[in-house]
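Thread: quick sanity check before group meeting

JM: Hey all, I'm pulling together slides for Thursday and realized we never actually wrote out the predicted structure for the chain we discussed last week. Dropping the sequence here so it's in one place. If anyone has concerns about the input, flag it before I start.
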Amino acid sequence: MTKFRILESKYFQHKVPMAALDYYDKNSHGEDEFSRKQAWFYSYGDSEIEAEFKEGLKEIFELLFSDDDTDWDLITLYPTHAKGVVNPNLRDLILDVSADIGIPMDQVLRRTETVRENHVMDEEKTKAINLEGSIEVNGDVEDKNVILVDNIALSGVSMLHGAELLKKNGANNVFGVSIGTDLEKKYETTEIDDKSATQLLRRLE
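JM (edit): ok, ran it. Output follows.
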């Protein structure tokens, strides 16, 4: 069942609603099957894992966005920590999902300088500072409703950072989707199977 969190931080102005396939256990040391698959797929790709994730993500997109009262204009990825790079495995996966559900993918976020990987840092403030000034919006998002995709949301700082930039450049709504969400945030996560994105956006009010 789809996992749902509202991401928020005192270092960012906007909250971000986010849906994920399942919980990622960063302390499992390969023992948790979903966490192992996610880490492997992001690093190396795998056709069987990709097919599994595609099926799950299609269910999320169809549940939240396909028959929603809000018209969702585009899907974009949050870039990797490296300048000019998006993860190719995640990109190909989302391109397939995009083609099936009919919402175009447009990579409007671009990393302009390499930063440290956020997952190696503990403090939320340090993560936020690390990302400052490292991404630009290189497409038209004025009055657009944007689905922002990332591999995993632990603290959620990367997703919040991307959404903040999209909003500053005129985006109307931003909704996050990730493959995994932090198991340690389970207490602030709910399971949904009958809510649209618009209904979930109202929880931010």
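AS: nice. The mean pLDDT is 96. The radius of gyration is 16 Å.
JM: adding both to the slides.
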